[in-house]
Specification:
The protein has a single domain, classed as Aminopeptidase, CATH 3.40.630. Helices cover 34% and strands 23% of the residues. It contains four helices and five strands; from the N terminus they run E-H-H-E-E-E-H-E-H. Strand 4, helix 3 and strand 5 form a beta-alpha-beta unit. Helix 1 crosses helix 2. The protein is globular, with a radius of gyration of 16 Å.
């Protein structure tokens, strides 16, 4: 498997993966996905060269990762924050996720980041295990509440 920067030609394949991810994620599927907004956001990140794809030997995109790299708002220095990491269901168990994380680390370091913050917003224990095997430590817990009041 080969990791590379995403290009505009990858948009359809990337959006197919984003739709698959949305349908699979329990914290996301309760809300309708706005495909135009998602495509625009990923396009902006792609133009900043922070969207990576992993493809198999046949050139099929098997997964993607996206991150934001910039000055930390409260601490000195530059940090990178993963905003999306997804591997197609049929490619899980391959090296795709590890290759994407390795590539994010390399890009983040090249841009001056001192740390890469990754996450799992869906409770995916396999993803958490991969991160831990790669040296990541738990640094908090994400809590979500659906708001229903109408001030």
């Amino acid at each position: 498997m080969k990791v590379r920067y995403a290009t505009a030609d990858d948009t359809d394949a990337i959006m197919a993966l984003v739709r698959e991810m949305h349908a699979e994620a329990p914290t996301h599927r309760a809300r309708r996905m706005c495909e135009v907004k998602a495509a625009d956001y990923l396009n902006d990140l792609r133009e900043e060269a922070t969207v990576l794809v992993v493809e198999d030997s046949g050139g099929t995109i098997a997964g993607l990762a996206a991150m934001i790299v910039g000055e930390n708002a409260w601490l000195e220095g530059v940090d990178a924050k993963e905003v999306l990491l997804y591997v197609a269901q049929e490619r899980r168990g391959s090296s795709a996720a590890m290759r994407l994380v390795d590539a994010m680390e390399l890009v983040a370091e090249r841009r001056g980041a001192k740390r890469l913050v990754v996450g799992d917003s869906t409770g995916n224990r396999v993803a958490q295990s991969i991160y831990r095997r790669l040296g990541y430590e738990v640094a908090g817990v994400q809590l979500i509440k659906t708001l229903t009041s109408t001030m």
